[in-house]
User: Fold these one by one.
Assistant:
Number 1:
Amino acid sequence: MPISLYNTMSRSVEQFKPISDETVKMYCCGPTVYNYAHIGNLRTYIFEDVLKRTLLHAGYKVTHVMNITDVGHLTGDGDDGEDKMEKSARESGKSVWDIARFYTEAFFKDFDALHNLRPDITCKATDHVADMIALIQRLEKGGHTYVAGGNVYFSIDTFPDYGRLARLDLNELRSGARIDVDDNKRNPKDFVLWFTNSKFGEQAMMWDSPWGRGYPGWHIECSAMSMKYLGEHFDIHCGGIDAIPIHHTNEIAQSEAATGHTWVNYWLHGEFLLNDTGKMSKSSGEFLTLSVLTSKGYDPMDYRFFILGGHYRSQLKFSWQAMDTARTARGNLFDRIAALKAGAAPAKSLGEAASRWCASFDEHVFNDLNTPRGLADLWGLLKDDTISPAEKLAAAYRMDTILGLGFESLSARQAEESIVDDPEALALVARRVEAKKARDYALADEIRDKLDAMGYAVKDTPDGTRLMKKM
RNA sequence: GGUGCCGUACCCAAGCGGUAAGGGACAGGUCUGCAAAACCUCUAUGCAUCGGUUCGAUUCCGAUCGGCACCUCCA
């Protein structure tokens, strides 16, 4: 079954055809590790993970590369802002290297908790400065650069196709450009490849280069590292939608100017997660991380389920109500799966009905990653009375290859419930059990009310009375 | 100013030319001493408004109204 993907370059859904029949080469823009990732950032990694899993499910091998930006991109407007890593280091009193290491670990903790498959290659910008320098030299040789004010710039006028991805109108840009503080630029859209002249003095991270001691520009690392690990022409490059007009536009310019040919075939971009006030941001507003969610009693899979419920190219509005909905639905789903696991082993092969649900699932997800529709197929499968538990389980596992909710490693819901160790509550439960045995239901109900007031819920199940803390 | 997106039931959210997926919530039911949980059933003659194209439009085109994002480190 063919996979169709929306390519930002053509602004249309295209049938995916890899360069090589076997291995799909995919590069994803990774985190800048100067702070925790917020759940909006994490949405994009889930989208990329679904993309990767879909390719794997379709039978491709995938080489997935992701960068870790541990050279601070700058904070301010234009090329003269303060280095983010520097700022973070200064504020916390740690070295920039410590900061980078700390947040890289924190990032992967969240990444793993969300069941994202690790990239095959994770590459740090600071390990590849030599590759960046080599690429800049190549551009220099091709006449695409100029030095001004101590910095090396990329001249977009040497690359006629500049701005195609973002559909920028260059004439428009030139006349309507904002006030540009950098007088060194020949064209306001030119960008820095190598800095030796920082407005903010000595940086902690500096390297020697043919142009003097300094540090790389913001975009060059992705070009240098992706080409190093995936070659000069590869299949997929993805990231957040905000990367289109500047970051990816500049990456394309410098990469294709260097090689003289097409760099990437498919450009995929994930939409933003919004909150009440608009987009989530590290620099303003509420800073929601995965650990904030888990501290409020949500499972990382609640968040993944929530994200899977919206299409990756649509803005999705975060709310606590939406998280509650996701938690309930995911809980119901896990209960069904757990019940199936308790009663049957997954079937070796699928019958017609189960196969039909799987085919429908594949069709929907292969069509530009329509996970909301895929989830509907999963529910349809689970509610289909004509299918045996063993087949349901096998089919659900198949779907989970893409959904990544972790059905195979899941245990029953009881295990997730917090264990009550309050002696007073436990004593009350014991008294209630006695009261029930004596058919004194008035007392039993009274005790239930009392426990309720204490924040506990009592459930009588076939296996006995259970007590749990209310959320 | 430029680029792009959205407005579908109480809420979230698919569908994008052939007569409205799914989840949550609500309600009813089965079960239960009662509850809870679970399971079953039900919930839009309708897809912002007004025109147009079409045998047929939620889906295409135009206008209007109302939201939003990106263009600045940002997923």
Number 2:
Amino acid sequence: MSEKEVRVRFAPSPTGFVHVGSLRTALFNYLFARHFKGKFVIRIEDTDRTRIVDGAVENLINVLKKLGIDYDEGPMKEGDYGPYYQSERLSIYKKYCDELIENGYAYYAFETPEELEEMKKMQQLEGKQTAYDRRARNLTKEEVNENLNSGKPFVVRLKVPLNQEIKFTDAVKGIIKFDSNQVDDQVLLKSDGFPTYHLANVIDDHEMKITHIIRGEEWITSVPKHILLYNAFGWDIPQMAHVPLLLNPDKSKLSKRQGDVAVEDFINKGYLKEALINFVALLGWHPSEKDGVVREIFSMDELISNFTIDRVQSSGAVFNIDKLNWMNNEYIKNYDLDNLFDLSLPYFENSGLDLNDTEKLKFILNTIRVYLDRLDMIPEKIKIFTKENFEIPDEFKELIYNENSLKVFKTLKDKVENSDELTVDGFKQMLNDTGKETGVKGKNLFKPVRIALTGEEHGPELPNIAVIYGKEKLSSLLSKYL
RNA sequence: GGCCCCAUCGACUAGUGGUUAGGUCGUCACUCUUUCACAGUGAAAACACGGGUUCGAGUCCCGUUGGGGUCACCA
């Protein structure tokens, strides 16, 4: 057996946003290709003209790019096996489809959608399984020609051989068998001249020399049709790998009904690409634990070097947003501050803070990053630095308006005003000195100061807040209570 | 319902015949921090069930139950 170059493909249909399930499939394909130094192809499955959404392809490529998933061949990146839009390959499908008919592997059918609907209804009424009853197989050559010549709309259907066992080995599921009698005479070519997924996908995967098909588990039941087609053409069947589904918390197939599924939404909410990739990769896949070392955080390069199909889980994985949040926070805490700042800047807009004062903004970001699960939590977390003329909540009034606190505010204010530049350590020192000089300590020292400065009981480190405020604001706030 | 797939803590998973069944998220407690968070330590928490095979099954086989997917001129 000669070593063939690994070629995998991600074959989405351009119907709009990018589903996280699609992202996971794309990622697995990408990781697999990169791991084996092969090629990652993107092919657009746009054979359903009714579902095409403008700009969907651009959006898709864009999202993948944003997340660091690049491809070798596909839209806007022509390779040796294009075109990569199925809608531009119609003549190829036509050619092969004719071949199938000629060799008796497929046949013309002329039922109208209404007739089919009627048939289905009858089957349901009789309590039978609904499936095409293969009636057009009985048409004589003459009848077929007559229909064709009269311009009657037609489809081409797969002529499924009866009483056969169809068997294949899936790289993640193992051996899977089907009874051919259960397989529908699937439509291969629609009446509008476009192929269905089944025909197009088999032809393209062959023509594009795809070696491994990595896709979602929902495709398993259509594999027999594909195998029949490969056999009819006399082609080699690529290695199949059906990866488990991503699930809602209730274990049903991950859907929009139960929360966000659009990758765009996650990006907009301020999930970092590293976190998204890391998290999604770990849904249904996990490297073996080498020497008992267990890890959760992986860079893209580490994912690539570790990724193999045999480590893919065979059962579905619930999309656990809590863990994503944790992981995103891990990345936010450890990210290079300058890079994180670039990503964060949009979230500082309309905050009232001076966007040109990057040093200050970075300092603020650095003090609040530990609280951020997502970048879009920034506005909420920086409110504390910008609010004006806040009221002291009733429950804290007693703590603020008393003799001790008065002493503290007064002393601290003097120190602040007499200081040179305000620093974290400097303010810490002032606070300590204030405690010593006034005799107020512990909770009675820190809590009133915090509340006087922020109006809130909890928040970031006091000295950081002081530095962010600056001398002027600090002393004017303190003055209010004197 | 037919067909197909799946089954380890609430979730993600490690485990490939001999383990006190390990880790991560989440939960709870304690420590640290004169706040919250972070960090650290610890706790509760799982092999769906029933039969085999075997000296020995979470690991292999069969069945049951449960969950999921799919049954289009959509992908």
